[in-house]
């Protein structure tokens, strides 16, 4: 398969993710190819379990791809999608990836079908549902269910985490204004994140720019604990807030042109 075909199918998949359901003719015009080419691409993606073809159109397979499970998922959605797209570049095939229960990681979970032989570790029910439907390997760090965030917490969750060596971990946060590291409102999630950082070869902080002006309760790490931070464009003053992080990446709509 050519790199051009891979790139086109990835672009096609992202369009369908954003729109939910798209007609074949619209996809052909958007990607400047024939409808026959689009139908072949859709067949390939359908065979991979990525989407479903329906009467001249295509739609995402899993309800979580389209419907937010809480208000948080509706905030800064476009920015989170940019961040997730960039985060995907750091994931190598045949690796073990941790995704935290945050809404940006949920966006990244939708894209993981584009990678091969990935094992996903998560304590998030919605992310677990997406990965279960993707054909990728899934390890759920189960425990006590925190219903509000639909995520597992507690001793049993950290016990699973401590038994696995993670290649790359993606974590979010609730804010960090006037602090030297990310914070969360949940003491239990703060503890889980500390275990994740200890078990991970590489750690990446995913957060949109709104987190720079929000505060929270429990700090679980310092910026220097992270290899990479991915966000949307921020001011020079805000960049100095996170100067401890080893690599800062800012993305917007022009990043992917």
Plain-language structure description:
It is a single chain. Mean pLDDT is 88; it is low at 63-69. This protein has a seven-stranded parallel β-sheet with strand order 6-5-4-9-11-13-14, with helices on both faces. Helix 1 (3-19) packs across helix 3 (35-47). It is globular and about 55 Å long. The longest helix is centred in the N-terminal third of the chain and has 17 residues, at 3-19. The chain is an alpha/beta fold. The chain is 36% helix and 21% strand. The protein has two domains: 3-61, Arc Repressor Mutant, subunit A (Orthogonal Bundle), CATH 1.10.10.10; 71-256, Rossmann fold (3-Layer(aba) Sandwich), CATH 3.40.50.
Main attributes?
257 residues; alpha/beta; Arc Repressor Mutant, subunit A; Rossmann fold; seven-stranded parallel β-sheet; three-stranded antiparallel β-sheet; 14 strands
Topology at a glance:
Elements: H1 3-19, E1 21-23, H2 24-31, H3 35-47, E2 51-54, E3 57-60, H4 77-88, E4 96-99, H5 103-111, E5 119-122, H6 125-132, E6 137-140, E7 144-146, E8 151-153, H7 155-161, E9 166-171, E10 183-184, H8 187-199, E11 200-206, E12 218-219, E13 228-231, H9 236-241, E14 248-250
Parallel strand pairs: 4-5, 4-9, 5-6, 9-11, 11-13, 13-14
Antiparallel strand pairs: 1-3, 2-3, 7-8, 10-12
Helix pairs in contact: 1-3, 2-3, 4-5, 5-6
């Amino acid at each position: 398969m050519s790199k051009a075909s891979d790139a086109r199918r990835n672009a096609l998949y992202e369009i369908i993710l954003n729109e939910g359901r798209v007609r074949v003719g619209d996809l052909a015009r958007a990607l400047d190819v024939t409808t026959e080419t689009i139908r072949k691409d859709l067949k390939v993606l359908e065979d991979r379990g990525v989407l479903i073809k329906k009467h001249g159109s295509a739609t995402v397979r899993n309800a979580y791809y389209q419907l937010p499970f809480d208000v948080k998922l509706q905030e800064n959605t476009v920015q989170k999608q940019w961040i997730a797209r960039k985060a995907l570049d750091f994931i190598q095939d045949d690796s073990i990836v941790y995704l935290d229960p945050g809404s940006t990681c949920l966006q990244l979970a939708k894209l993981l079908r584009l990678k091969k032989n990935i094992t996903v570790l998560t304590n998030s029910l919605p992310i677990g549902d997406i990965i279960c439907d993707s054909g990728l390997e899934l390890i759920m760090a189960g425990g006590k269910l925190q219903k509000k965030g639909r995520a597992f917490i507690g001793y049993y969750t950290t016990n699973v985490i401590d038994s696995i060596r993670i290649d790359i971990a993606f974590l979010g946060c609730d804010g960090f204004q006037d602090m030297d590291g990310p914070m969360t409102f949940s003491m239990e999630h703060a503890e889980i994140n500390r275990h994740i950082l200890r078990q991970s070869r590489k750690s990446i902080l995913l957060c949109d720019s709104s987190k720079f002006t929000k505060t929270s309760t429990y700090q679980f790490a310092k910026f220097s604990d992270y290899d990479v931070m991915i966000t949307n464009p921020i001011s020079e003053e805000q960049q100095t807030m996170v100067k401890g992080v080893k690599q800062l990446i800012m993305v917007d709509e022009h990043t992917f042109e």
